[in-house]
Design a protein that fits this description.
With 260 residues, this protein is an alpha/beta fold. The protein has ten helices and six strands, in the order H-E-H-E-H-E-H-E-H-H-E-H-H-E-H-H. It has a single domain, classed as Rossmann fold, CATH 3.40.50.
């Protein structure tokens, strides 16, 4: 194939090109190589439930810390520090190995993991806190716990933390107040548990209603046709999580073409 030589740009055109490329550099996604993402699973789950999100965060250039914590063994107040403090230390260690540049810490949570973050941040100031993405969080408590919490075997299966996810006197979510940090929330609207969904008024994901995922002070809220149990493994959800971490908003149809 022959290549044709082109004439050099005029001074005016050259200046314009420099300005255009400079503007593109300003709006282009930045590198997240020094930023850390802490992943927190939900009640009665393990870190393996967040493996796909961990992989996606790593592929996007983040340091991914996938935390495994004993969600049914302690109350939320104890679980929060038990899970998050060591993860912050791990972020600091890995970020310093990569670069001496400042880094931010982001959180991606499923279900009760979001309540752990709210609990921790209500007590501890994280100076380099970035963004938080919550998947199906019972931010106003769950009616399922209200209905089933007194049933025999519930406490045995889900522990003190499970009982604290209701909306009554023991509710931890309802004691934590509004968000004072950048948080985006994804709520599911599909259920594979019709029995539990009958206990939930309005749209729900089988465990939490869309309305009760909302949190005063949240930055963005998105509904997707996914279930509570499997939302953290869903391709659409994962794409939205990474988009929020990078841009501080979820991807809507009108912006999708531009961002793709």
């Amino acid at each position: 194939m022959a290549f044709r030589r082109t004439r050099p740009l005029s001074p005016v055109a050259n200046t314009a090109a420099v300005l255009v490329f400079g503007l593109l550099a300003l709006v282009a996604p930045t590198s997240y190589a020094e930023d850390c993402v802490i992943l927190l699973h939900g009640l009665a789950k393990s870190d393996s439930s967040m493996n796909k999100l961990e992989q996606a965060a790593g592929d996007a250039g983040f340091i991914a810390i996938n935390v495994d914590y004993p969600s049914t063994e302690f109350p939320i107040e104890k679980l929060a520090g038990h899970a998050i403090a060591p993860a912050l230390d791990a972020c600091a260690a890995q970020a310093s190995d990569r670069s001496e540049q400042p880094y931010q810490v982001h959180f991606v949570t499923h279900s009760m993991g979001g309540i752990l973050v709210r609990q921790y941040l209500s007590r501890v100031h994280v100076e380099n806190l970035g963004r938080v993405v919550m998947l199906g969080p019972p931010n106003q408590g769950s009616e399922v716990v209200d209905q089933l919490g007194s049933f025999p075997g519930f406490h045995f299966m889900f522990g003190d933390a499970g009982l604290q996810l209701g909306s009554g006197k023991m509710s931890v979510p309802n004691k934590l107040g509004a968000a004072s940090f950048d948080v985006g929330i994804i709520a599911g609207t599909k259920s594979i548990n019709p029995i539990l969904s009958r206990l939930l008024p309005g749209k729900d994901d089988g465990k939490v209603t869309v309305e009760r995922t909302r949190l005063d002070g949240m930055n963005d809220h998105l509904e997707l046709p996914v279930t509570h149990v499997f939302m953290m493994k869903d391709r659409k959800v994962i794409k939205q999580v990474i988009h929020y971490l990078q841009h501080g908003r979820f991807q809507r149809a009108k912006t999708q073409a531009a961002d793709d």
